[in-house]
Amino acid sequence: MANPPANPFKPLIVGAVVMGALALVTLAGNWILAESREADERTARRIAEQQRKFQEQEARYKAENEARRKEIQEADHRAFVAREAAEAKRKAELAARRKINVSERVEALRLKAEDGDPESQYLYGCLKRFGLTGLGDFNPDGTARQFRPLVAYPVMGENFGGKLHEVLFVDLPEITRDETAAMSWFERAALQGHDEAQYEMAHYHSRSRPTAAPTFRPPWSTR
Question: Could you report how far apart the first and last alpha carbons of the chain are, in Å?
């Protein structure tokens, strides 16, 4: 049996199929490349948008921080100026006060006490009894702790009452508390009829011998 004649269009058909396949592959490749480029572009746009937002946020934070820094700096400066003005005012007020030299007052009081003045003897005894530690007893201007009238009055010899803001105590000596010396000065004043000194001596004797029968009646005793 004879073979059928060859199809003269077979090579054309095969070529067409191959060309079609190549075309499909090319199209698919182009589509994939296009999708890839589009994806890359979307990624690039997203990154650019994120960078833009980050830069805007960074600029906003910098502006806010700078504004806050200036606000704090201005507040600190105002507080500094206010403190300086208050300190200048305080110094001016202190400079305008009447100065009282405590050492001179204490020495004058001691000399009068030694000369026999009963009031001075009693006041000097108060100083010895309570002591004088320095600034804490005087100058209630914000730096002192407490004003002690029982210590200050013997030195001042006057009662300032509400006029403490008008005076400034300077040259403060250190006087140690000495109960024995205080009683000695109280006794001198009491023997001269000083009422407060007599009370101090009677109180002292009642504390020192509360139960013993009195063997000595001081001249200021009222019993």
Answer: 175
